[in-house]
Each structure stands twice: as C-alpha cells, then as structure tokens.
Amino acid sequence: MLGGKPRLEGRRISVLQIAELVLDCNEDPATVADQLAISIADVHEALAYYYDNIEEMNKQRAKCESLVEELKPTSKSPWIASSL
C-alpha cells in the first residue's frame, strides 16, 4: 500500500496513477511503462486490479478530488492552483 492506496509491489507507483495515465490521459500502456520505468506487464497488472476493484478505485478518486477542493483556497502549489 502507498498511503493506504494499492501500489505496484516494491514501488511507490499507485494503481490509480497508472489507471489515470492509461484511461484518463489516453496514454499507451507501453508509453506509461517507459515513463515509469516499469514493465508493460506491471501496467496491465495495475489495470486488472483497477477493474477488479472499481468501487474502491472510484472512492479513492473521489477522496483525492475532495482533498484538492479542500486545499485550493490555501494552497500555493501550482498543481492545485492549475485545477481551479
């Protein structure tokens, strides 16, 4: 687990991070594997976990989105500010 989030074993890369890159950003799994220095099998394993646990993944997404909304008013982070 990565802060309570499912992750690739031995890495600080979450299943949700991989799923967002492939599904939301329309990145090719091979590109994601290359960008994160992991195998394509790791990408597909993460996607399989994502789909097998979609309710859990949706709850994580909602929690992250809620946290971003909560931090927007006081954050100086360019990432959070850009999501305004």
Strand content: under 5%
Overall shape: it is globular
DSSP helix fraction: 55-70%
What is the overall pLDDT average? Answer: 85
Structural class: mainly alpha
Query: Please, how many helices?
Result: 5
Reported for the largest beta sheet, the result is: none
Q: What is the terminal-to-terminal distance?
A: 29 Å
Radius of gyration: 14 Å
Order of helices and strands: HHHHH
Low-confidence stretches: none
Question: Got a strand count?
Answer: 0
How many discrete domains?
1
Structure description:
- With 84 residues, the protein is mainly α.
- The protein has five helices and no strands.
- It is globular and about 40 Å long.
- The protein starts with 14 loop residues before the first helix and ends with a helix.
- The model has no long low-confidence stretch (mean pLDDT 85).
List keywords for this structure.
84 residues; mainly alpha; 5 helices; 64% helix; globular
Short description:
The protein is mainly alpha-helical. It is 64% helix and 0% strand. Helix 1 crosses helix 3 and helix 2 packs across helix 3 (40-52).
